[in-house]
Amino acid sequence: MRTTSDVFHLAIPTHDLDAAQDFYVTKLGCKLARRYHDRITLDFFGDQVVCHLSDEIVDEPRLYPRHFGVTFRHREDWERLLHLSRTRDLPFFEEPFHRFAGRAEEHESFVLRDPSHNLLEFKHYADPRMMY
Amino acid sequence: MRTTSDVFHLAIPTHDLDAAQDFYVTKLGCKLARRYHDRITLDFFGDQVVCHLSDEIVDEPRLYPRHFGVTFRHREDWERLLHLSRTRDLPFFEEPFHRFAGRAEEHESFVLRDPSHNLLEFKHYADPRMMY
Amino acid sequence: MRTTSDVFHLAIPTHDLDAAQDFYVTKLGCKLARRYHDRITLDFFGDQVVCHLSDEIVDEPRLYPRHFGVTFRHREDWERLLHLSRTRDLPFFEEPFHRFAGRAEEHESFVLRDPSHNLLEFKHYADPRMMY
Amino acid sequence: MRTTSDVFHLAIPTHDLDAAQDFYVTKLGCKLARRYHDRITLDFFGDQVVCHLSDEIVDEPRLYPRHFGVTFRHREDWERLLHLSRTRDLPFFEEPFHRFAGRAEEHESFVLRDPSHNLLEFKHYADPRMMY
Amino acid sequence: MRTTSDVFHLAIPTHDLDAAQDFYVTKLGCKLARRYHDRITLDFFGDQVVCHLSDEIVDEPRLYPRHFGVTFRHREDWERLLHLSRTRDLPFFEEPFHRFAGRAEEHESFVLRDPSHNLLEFKHYADPRMMY
Amino acid sequence: MRTTSDVFHLAIPTHDLDAAQDFYVTKLGCKLARRYHDRITLDFFGDQVVCHLSDEIVDEPRLYPRHFGVTFRHREDWERLLHLSRTRDLPFFEEPFHRFAGRAEEHESFVLRDPSHNLLEFKHYADPRMMY
Amino acid sequence: MRTTSDVFHLAIPTHDLDAAQDFYVTKLGCKLARRYHDRITLDFFGDQVVCHLSDEIVDEPRLYPRHFGVTFRHREDWERLLHLSRTRDLPFFEEPFHRFAGRAEEHESFVLRDPSHNLLEFKHYADPRMMY
Amino acid sequence: MRTTSDVFHLAIPTHDLDAAQDFYVTKLGCKLARRYHDRITLDFFGDQVVCHLSDEIVDEPRLYPRHFGVTFRHREDWERLLHLSRTRDLPFFEEPFHRFAGRAEEHESFVLRDPSHNLLEFKHYADPRMMY
After folding, report:
1. Which of C8, C88, G85, G109 could anchor a disulfide with G90, C-beta 3.0 to 4.6 Å?
2. What is the least distance, in Å, from the CA of H53 to any CA of chain A?
3. CB B103 to CB C81 under 8 A?
4. pLDDT score of H101
5. What is the distance between the alpha carbons of residues E132 and F40, in angstroms, rounded to a whole number?
6. Is the entire prediction scored with pTM above 0.90?
7. E-strand stretches of chain B
8. Does the model's ipTM exceed the 0.85 cut?
9. How would DSSP label each residue in G73-115?
10. Do chains F and H touch (3 or more CB pairs under 8 A)?
């Protein structure tokens, strides 16, 4: 469990603010909070993600060691996001798959790719106690 | 606001699992959830951070474009973490400072450095509506 | 008291979507959810306000019979919004005043004006039971 | 998400306080908080709606640019209100319909008309993330 | 602690529905939910009180064995209600007094009298664990 | 909706403290908080009921104008209490019945009788908005 | 953080059910839920403690390795319990003291002794993150 | 119901800290908070359990008079823990059984044994009001 009043915040690189806003707000359904000349700040599923204009863009995205996202306690939320991702034709890095299959910490996941090659993983665990 | 039941999750690189566990659990006061041969998973202020064993370690940490952390709604929580960081002699990357001073989105921040040069920023905003 | 999961929604006219987004998002600190050719939808203090492109713009705004806004239970929230309104130089229709002074339902209020002359009233009651 | 402790408030015109109270309280099931010679204040689904006695009554109601209402996160709440509206024979301006059908922000809606031609829209979204 | 979703309900006699509505809604600040020819139902501090038209009216009210009311966890809420009672000149049956003074279960209380001689007691305990 | 932190409190007569404790605690499953020579105080479904030793006992109980109880938002809670009442063979004053059948405010109810003839009504509404 | 809906439960020995009920309910202010010939079950600060009639009573209580109690997040709750313990003259095993003084996990504590020599420790941490 | 902000805490003996950590963290899925030379502290289903290095280890565990654990309000949580216990091959002291069968306070339970013979009981009640 976590508090409702605090927020996790993450800063990531983007090569273009318009492309980032198009992906995160128009497509992924996050909300735009503030925009500056060099960054945009987003309400990302209730937490804060900030996209900073940068040259440090990865050519080929790989899932490890860096990615971020949300783990949904309720499977319907994970399913609805999967549905939105397909409906809005978002770029998939990984189609839905199982990690740690057969183990108590088994979970389902899919991974999207943003325009600057940041990878976003969305998970749902069979057992919510395993969400950490 | 965010839900209590979902969690943000972030994967970051670490060069050594013991060093990561010492920093995050023993020093920073997070909780160890699971440990594998190649990663540890943590309850990081109510969200999930996973440290993956990796060679991709930054030599010289810089605050932009990548960092992560928590924004505390209540200043006492930010102060107590600052106090714990000093009490336990954690490595500071930035002593407490103000960002956007004089503006509505003004906030206080300090930044810690983990053993693999990941930077952790902890913030408190004068106006909680600006936390995104 | 109200639920956290439902939202109030209000549709109002705007003469220009950019002017509306500038006022509500950049200045007032609300969040942009969706933008279409003829409307923008906003997370307005946790509820939904939709600005529709329209010719039906009032020349001279008057407080009655139509206005909308938020009543804050905690005075600090009302004060911080007043401070942000001054800091960001938002157009005031009414400087802070008391309504029903001396009565149990006494409350403080200030009123802002958006670019299309919609009036926004923000209140704080001395007695929260009187918020309805 | 929104707080439980604050309230949205909306002021609208009514041509007759008894007609307004009959519609909102006796028929729609809202609660009467306070009544003055020139206004009534209501607990409207947990938010505040104030009906002000006024001459500014629209002859022919149109859905745009002005209407208000509630978006219910849980479909059963939307269904029960639809059921109550039929049971109590409330005036419908629009029978239930879909807006943005086939899109991620698809939602169901019906619209009631109050005695002074204010239009009340009640919505349910297929995806709660789209409620803003 | 109690749930937010259930309500306590109490049925009491009243000799006159208008007198009851005047006392509970106009004076005490409760909300009118429903009115029939023989009863009114009220949102009484979040619970339900129903006043039934009846001949069974007590001539002289006495505090024991029957009375009802609310115990406020936070002293400010108790104080504000006391203030409203004085401001609106409600009939006091007992001015504020202490019960069980010097004991762990010590609490402050005042008692109002409704038009049909029902007695309403409002309490605040020094130690919230003693509220039962 | 109501707060979790406040409690409704009700004082009722009992002819015998042991009989009251047996009914409310041993049978009905409420919790005993405090016992004095002349009263017992109970955690009654999260609110406070106090049974005062008294001669004022009604010979023949009638549902109007006085009774009290709980309205459950979730039907399973109402059903489980009904089941417990039958399992523990509690005295029924009214077997389950419908009140206001066919109307929006329709609800199910059953009524128990305590040893001093106080009547306890437990309700569930088809539409939770009608719980007041 | 923990859920509101689950409960921790602990079974401990008691040499006498009346002595246990006198200590836990009459003195410590917990609530009696159920009583059998061989055990009593208690609402102990929101969790469940069950006292089982037993011969396995420790002659001389020692704080380690076994004790139980509550850690209060808010210091006022810890202080009020300390005050109640003195007011009601409960047996202290340890007067208030500090453990881990000077360290981030520093906390205040006092320890009571029940009639069967079970030891109850009540704590308050300077930093709530250290409560585990 | 219980608060989210406080924690129950329990101190128990362990003969070996590594064995305790392996059982509670690696197998049972609790989280390690702090480790000292003579104890480990755990986030045990949201409450605190501390394992103290000790000689006082019971040779043969018996369920009475001492055991501890969690009562889950929602049966799915109890089922998932049962599933995890089987999946990870934890030592069962008692396979799932019913206690008080046929009575209102009927509940299901299973009991695990930790490496130092402490017994952990996990329950689910048919009627949540009986959880105390």
Report:
1. G85
2. 27
3. no
4. 94
5. 10
6. yes
7. 7-14, 31-35, 39-44, 47-53, 67-71, 92-99, 107-113, 119-125
8. yes
9. SSHHHHHHHHHHHHHTTPPEEEEEEEESTTSTT-EEEEEEE-T
10. yes
